[in-house]
Amino acid sequence: MSSATPMRKLNSESQRGIGSRVKRAMPKRKRTFWVYLAAAGPGLIAANAGNDAGGIATYASAGSQFGYRTLFFMVLVTIGLVVVQEMSARLGVYSGKGLAALIREEFSVRLAGLAMFALTASNVGLVVSEFAGIGAAFQLFGVSRYISIPLSALFIWGLVLFSSYRYAERVFLIMSLAFFAYPIAAIVGHPDWHKVAAQAAFPHFIASQSFIFMGVALIGTTISPYMQVYAAAGVVDRGISPEEYPLERADAVGGAIFANIISMFIIIATAAAIGGSGPLESAKQAALALRPIAGSEAVILFAIGLLGASALAGAVVPLSTSYAIAEALGVERSVSRKFRQAPLFLGLFSVQVLLGAAVSLVPVNLITLLIFTQVLQGLLTPIILTFIVLLSNRQSVLGEAVNGRIFRKVAAVAVIAIAGLSSVLLVQTVIGWL
Length: 434
Fold this sequence. Notes:
CATH superfamily: Amino acid/polyamine transporter I
CATH topology: Amino acid/polyamine transporter I
CATH architecture: Up-down Bundle
Largest sheet: none
Oligomer: single chain
Number of domains: 1
Shape: globular
Radius of gyration: 20 Å
């Protein structure tokens, strides 16, 4: 049984209380915005976590290589992310279970175990890259990574182990404020807004292998399996009931749109400053490349965004692994539980944070690690997305909230397209690796 079940009534009443207080305090024209802020949570956090250190490097490289040409592609990717995020959140709300638990119950223990093994392996690599991103961000401020990474790991570990889900969620949302640094960085770079609008509204693709590879990489870094696992598990841990789903749907859809708008601003910022200069290998390299053209302000803004993104993902990625494994095994899982109540869940989280921080401090080849992680993500993404669609189509799981006829077709097309392009990225990555 989910650990969120005993808390569902309390959390639901709490959330309704927030919504009702906002409605009484605000005139009608302002209610929608403030009610959304009161409901913001798993959807916004999961989507923003996708803009991690690796994601920032990919978006920045898209801008430095192809200018604004990938913006239209990002609009299409946004539609795919919205569809997937909404289904993941709906599964969590109406079933009261996370994705791993549903896969185990509706399909088989072996399939759930295989998917969770691949998720764990890829997530461990991602955790290392997130702490490396934290170290890189602090280095831009002149702080040694040997100081910043251990302290950041201690903060993230303590936040999850010694607080409730609601408190940790608020801190995650505060971390998300760092993403506003990227729109400011884009404005500082003085982009050609007419060209930005034109290339976001209409396709300006290039018939080249490098452009295709970049397009596939953008999908891979924008729609990651751990995001969907966390999105479903987060609504369960928060205790959101079916009656409150309209607010959670706004959170899931709004979070996906917000996260991808930020991604597009990263592309715009780097395109305006260093467009046409070639590919980049890291977010730190992107920040330093902005200095001669956009000034030190752009570097500081990029560093702030990188720090917030890496810290958020440094918590969300290991949490998604812990949720998935605990769900697959059917044991207690909740951030609101004490260590003795959920030893496996919190123990797995602790080991991942410790391992990720430790490995990021030793001289390892992070590029090779990221390539290996990318291969596993390419294998896992089509599998997880297929499970999400199949589960969302089952009336035995969702009842009346099952996918409708039109949405079923839209979801199938989106998932087939994403899975196909993820497979292309997998093949290209393996060929390049060999």
